[in-house]
Amino acid sequence: MVDRPNKPTAIPVGSSTAVPAPQVDISSDNSSVTATLPSGDSVTVLLFGATVTSWKSAGGKKENLWLSEKAILDGSKPVRGGIPLVFPVFGPPPSDHATSSLPQHGFARNSRWEFLGKSTSESAGKGSAGDDSVTLDFGLGSSNLSDSAKQAWPFNFGLVYSVTLVKDVLTTNMTVRNEGTKPFECQVLFHSYLKVDDIANTTVSGLDSIEYVDKVNGASTQTETNKAVTLTGETDRVYKALKPEAKVVVKENGKPLYEVGRDNLDDVVVWNPWAEKAGGMGDFAPKDGYKQMICIESGAVSGWQKLDGGDSFEGAQIIKSVL
Ligand SMILES: O=P(O)(O)OC[C@H]1O[C@@H](O)[C@H](O)[C@@H](O)[C@@H]1O
């Protein structure tokens, strides 16, 4: 059980509270929670992995996240699409590290999280409807882990994951706390699958002059020379040490589609499996779906966050959907 100061109102899973407009509507069942703003913008979070599986903006008309048609949502496999969470290790764990027995990307996306509750702020009568907001909080601690994950990573930790929706903006914030006395090292990342119309017309800006590790090219270190990065084949790059204020902008036909900002997260992964890799993934559909997605993943993954007993680390990703 994860606790946090100023704990929000707890909503028992399985309950459903429908409140009349213009208030924020929250509905939940045994497997997911959906929050809808009076504007129609909405977000859905699956308790399995605390995976955001849908984020709609433009009053509910525009889905911003790509979700595979064959994504497995029953908890037997991480979700292919949406925003899976990466913790406490990014990628395959190094053999000489305390995470070495964990699966790729760790256990956060493979574990069932607790819904801790919601907090809302409604502007009805006070100002613009664009000020409405809702935050959904989820928790995962050592006691929620499977025995095998506990054995593979025997540390006492608490995660609080907050998903905040305001008109056209989704913020995901993770706080990691070492609840024990043994220090541990961890990595955190938001593996966001952003939806695009056509990858052939998509560019990514804000990465010019940034050093990156090119994982499809023997993990070589390169420096980005393009103002507008295009993807023309399998792409798997870890851009490192971005300036805190630097935004990564996904454009389609030259027009901004998403602006991705970060708080206390210095790295950005750009990933697209392309045709062959997507073809080899049983849960990736349709097979040419790689043309409709680009992963822009904010995280702290090129080093380790070392947390002594009682220490915390907090980082956030802020995605603005631009019409
Ligand atoms: O198939 P998975 O485990 O969800 O990982 C997908 C991709 O996730 C990315 O973050 C990694 O950089 C890639 O190397 C990896 O292939």
From TrEMBL:
Substrate binds at residues 80, 104, 109. Signal peptide: none annotated. Residues 1-28 are annotated as: Disordered. CDD domains: D-hex-6-P-epi_like. Keywords: Isomerase. Pfam families: Aldose_epim. It comes from the Eukaryota. One of its GO terms (biological process) is carbohydrate metabolic process. The active site is at 191, 297. Gene3D superfamilies: 2.70.98.10. The keyword Isomerase applies. One of its GO terms (cellular component) is cytoplasm. GO terms for molecular function: carbohydrate binding; glucose-6-phosphate 1-epimerase activity. It catalyses: alpha-D-glucose 6-phosphate = beta-D-glucose 6-phosphate. Its EC number is 5.1.3.15. It is an enzyme of class 5 (isomerase). Belongs to the glucose-6-phosphate 1-epimerase family. Catalyzes the interconversion between the alpha and beta anomers from at least three hexose 6-phosphate sugars (Glc6P, Gal6P, and Man6P). This is Glucose-6-phosphate 1-epimerase. It comes from Xylona heveae (strain CBS 132557 / TC161).
